[in-house]
Q: What sequence folds into this?
């Protein structure tokens, strides 16, 4: 009684019969084939060659499934027990279909490699449990098919993805990352870092009250983040521009805007005014140089030009805030 309670709802692989192992293999091949087809559907618009790779992989899984079904029918009849990978404790889980569309092309390829490696280990272990010679041979052949000298994903990649095509698809993936995350995030960071300088430092020098300055900086940063996030998400749904999910862009822009302002607001949690102000000014210059570095790394903007534009503009806004606060 107690062993059953502590064992949980899942079966151990060692408890499966040969018929159940075959049934598990059939359902797993079916699931993997569906996943590969889902990858193909998700990637077809922007990565047609990678979509062809996953369609070929799905077809390969279909052949494996049919061979397993034929073996089950020959040995145990046409009634296949319902057992799936989620019923077995040791079996690696797969991502649900509704998450597939969120994978990048590189993540999809990596996931396919991991799926093959998992299938290879399963067939190796299943082979040791088989007593029938024909079943043992089939499971061994499937293990070899899943592993091979090179993975199926790599071999099909050589067929459908020559270096120039893969480079083009990688460039498309990089461009999508820039449009969806980097560009709105950078715009938010610049807006949050620069636009909050004047009100924060004006309040600091006008009141010389660090707590009040922090509250003003906090409200300005959070307000700017919410405003930028909603503006980015609302003005373009991404369908025509190809800029990707408006929610992702809005989050990237809003979060980076808020962080840009909070960076030089947080030092005013320090009670000593001049210490907090000196640290806040130092943080400002770190933020401005970070913006210049991101522009150089992702936007191919010459670093000196980016630094000159950002640091000069930020310094002017900082000086304006200090002058206004001292007026």
A:
């Amino acid at each position: 009684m107690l062993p059953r309670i502590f064992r949980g709802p899942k079966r151990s692989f060692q408890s499966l019969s040969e018929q159940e192992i075959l049934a598990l293999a059939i359902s797993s091949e079916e699931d993997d084939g569906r996943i590969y087809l889902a990858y193909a559907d998700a990637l077809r618009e922007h990565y047609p060659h990678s979509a062809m790779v996953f369609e070929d992989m799905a077809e390969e899984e279909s052949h494996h499934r049919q061979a397993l079904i034929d073996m089950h029918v020959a040995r145990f009849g046409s009634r296949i027990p319902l057992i799936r990978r989620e019923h077995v404790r040791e079996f690696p889980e797969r991502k649900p279909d509704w998450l597939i569309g969120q994978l990048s092309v590189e993540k999809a390829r990596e996931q396919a490699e991991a799926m093959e490696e998992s299938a290879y280990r399963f067939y190796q272990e299943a082979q040791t449990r088989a007593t029938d010679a024909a079943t043992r041979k089939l499971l061994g052949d499937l293990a070899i098919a899943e592993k091979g000298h090179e993975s199926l994903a790599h071999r099909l990649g050589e067929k459908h993805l020559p270096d120039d095509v893969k480079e083009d698809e990688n460039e498309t993936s990089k461009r999508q990352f820039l449009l969806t995350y980097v560009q709105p995030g950078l715009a938010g960071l610049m807006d949050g870092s620069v636009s909050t300088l004047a009100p924060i430092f004006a309040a600091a020098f006008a009141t010389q009250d660090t707590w009040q300055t922090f509250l003003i900086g906090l409200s300005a940063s959070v307000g700017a983040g919410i405003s930028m996030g909603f503006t980015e998400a609302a003005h373009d749904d991404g369908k025509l521009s190809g800029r990707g999910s408006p929610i992702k862009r809005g989050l990237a822009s809003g979060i980076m805007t808020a962080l840009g302002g909070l960076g030089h607001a947080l030092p005013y949690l320090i009670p000593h005014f001049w210490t907090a102000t000196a640290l806040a000014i130092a943080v400002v210059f770190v933020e401005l140089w970070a913006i210049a570095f991101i522009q150089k790394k992702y936007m191919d903007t010459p670093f000196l030009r980016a630094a000159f534009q950002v640091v000069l503009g930020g310094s002017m806004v900082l000086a304006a805030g200090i002058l206004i606060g001292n007026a």
In short: The chain has two domains: 2-161, 167-326. The first helix runs from residue 2 to 7. Residues 1-7 have pLDDT under 50 and may be disordered. The chain is about 80% helix and 0% strand.
